User: Fold this.
Amino acid sequence: MGHKSIDMQIAIPRSQDASRIQDQLMRQGQQFQDALTEKELKQSKLNQTKVKVQEEVQWNNTDENERQEKKQSEKKTLEDEREKNLTEVSHPYLGNHIDFSR
Assistant:
């Protein structure tokens, strides 16, 4: 056997290893890109649900604020009516006019 045959015996398995490594490197890039895409999709879905939840909370807060304002206005009108009724009620035997002429 000459030197060429021994070199060829070593070179062929090494070239197969090199092609396998090259294939793995090419696939690794694609897998990395796929993982990034999947992560980005999950993040966008998560952001969409967060926005919906935040909008619902905002609408609920707005409704709650409206209810509180309505309760306060009703309470104020009731207090005004009570105060008005108290001032209009006359005492049964005392008069409303005080004579300071003496």
